[in-house]
């Protein structure tokens, strides 16, 4: 970590550590080759470049995708993007939206009303991979909306016109950092969405991060693998995960 890190608060240092752990683990040679030659590189904008955003965004950079990590304080992301190399940039949330083919949403759920207000028309047509989870103690009243209407459908209502796919929310950032490209059986990552083309893009990005996508169903099914759902934190191979989906 370079000298800029000393400006970080301790919380920020902890998640940056998790994201940098991703960088310390070398990818298998075949994956490295495939990643760096990725013909289908996606321009990815990360909104909320903390523990989960930094970790998954770092895996995509390693796979060969250009990633703009955003923050309300972009200068604080300098150590992360310097460590990740030329495919990584830091910027504002507006810059991330403008830059991207695909957005990765990884803020506290309580940030949605503000993101909705501040970038009202910018979401239209964007593929948004939504890794957020809603917790009453942190996110307040919107948690009730997510419980009542479904977390995926609630995100889609706030990000008007976005093609929302729920992904990367079912287990912890530290596990994503340690379990990617698991030898002997990739770990399954459940995804859910209503837009077939967006689901296909999300599935490929799950593979590029070193996991196996499992489509659970439409956006309304995303609660099955959100906190409190039966598939939350069910870590295993795709086969094991599908067995659990079937209740076996
Ligand atoms: N950590 C995990 O293991 C994990 C696993 C699965 C799902 N999730 C979910 O993923 C989301 C992020 O969790 P995290 O642990 O990565 O949180 P985190 O480390 O606190 O990072 C969240 C980031 O969101 C940004 N942010 C906060 N409010 C914002 C706003 N109003 N507008 C724009 N950006 C805002 C902050 O960036 P700036 O302050 O720099 O702007 C912060 O760095 C949560 O919904 C969480 O429930 C987390």
**What percentage of the residues does DSSP assign to strands (E)?**
5-15%
The ligands found in this model are:
NADP nicotinamide-adenine-dinucleotide phosphate
**Could you state the order of secondary-structure elements as H and E?**
HHEHEHEHEHEHHHEHEHEH
For the record, the count of structural domains works out to 1
Poorly predicted regions are 1-11, 28-37
How widely separated are the two ends?
45 Å
CATH class: Alpha Beta
Outline the biggest β-sheet: 8 strands, mixed
Q: Overview of this structure, please?
A:
The protein has 248 residues and is α/β, with parallel strands linked by helices. The protein has a single domain (3-246), classed as 3-Layer(aba) Sandwich (Rossmann fold), CATH 3.40.50. The protein contains twelve helices and eight strands. It has helices at residues 10-24, 29-36, 51-62, 78-84, 93-99, 112-118, 136-139, 142-149, 151-158, 173-179, 196-208, 238-245; strands spanning 44-47, 67-70, 88-91, 102-105, 127-130, 163-166, 188-193, 212-217. An eight-stranded mixed sheet has the order 3-2-1-4-5-6-7-8, sandwiched between helices. The chain is globular. The termini are far apart. Residues 1-11 and 28-37 have low confidence and may be disordered. Bound molecules: NADP nicotinamide-adenine-dinucleotide phosphate. NADP nicotinamide-adenine-dinucleotide phosphate binds at residues 15, 48-53, 71-73, 76, 93, 106-109, 111, 114-115, 131-133, 169, 172-173. Residues 15, 48-53, 71-73, 76, 93, 106-109, 111, 114-115, 131-133, 169, 172-173 line the site of NADP nicotinamide-adenine-dinucleotide phosphate (NAP).
């Amino acid at each position: 970590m370079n000298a800029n890190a000393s400006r970080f608060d301790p919380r920020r240092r902890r998640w940056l550590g998790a994201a940098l752990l991703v960088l310390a683990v070398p990818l298998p040679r075949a994956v490295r080759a495939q990643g760096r030659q990725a013909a289908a590189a996606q321009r990815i904008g990360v909104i909320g470049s903390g523990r989960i955003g930094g970790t998954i965004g770092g895996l995509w950079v390693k796979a060969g995708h250009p990633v703009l990590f955003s923050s309300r304080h972009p200068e604080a992301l300098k150590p992360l993007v310097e460590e990740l190399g030329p495919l990584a940039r830091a910027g504002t949330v507006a810059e991330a939206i403008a830059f991207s083919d695909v957005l990765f949403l990884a803020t506290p759920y309580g940030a949605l009303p503000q993101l909705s207000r501040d970038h009202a028309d910018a979401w239209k047509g964007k593929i948004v991979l939504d890794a957020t989870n809603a917790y009453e103690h942190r996110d307040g009243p919107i948690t009730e909306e997510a419980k009542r209407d479904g977390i995926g459908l609630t995100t889609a209502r706030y990000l008007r016109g976005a093609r929302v796919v729920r992904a990367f929310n079912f287990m912890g950032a530290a596990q994503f950092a340690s379990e990617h490209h698991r030898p002997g059986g990739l770990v399954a990552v459940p995804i859910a969405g209503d837009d077939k083309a967006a689901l296909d893009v999300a599935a490929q990005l799950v593979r590029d991060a070193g996991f196996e996508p499992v489509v659970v169903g439409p956006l309304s099914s995303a609660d099955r693998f959100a906190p409190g759902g039966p598939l939350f934190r069910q870590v295993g191979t795709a086969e094991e995960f599908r067995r659990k989906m079937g209740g076996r």
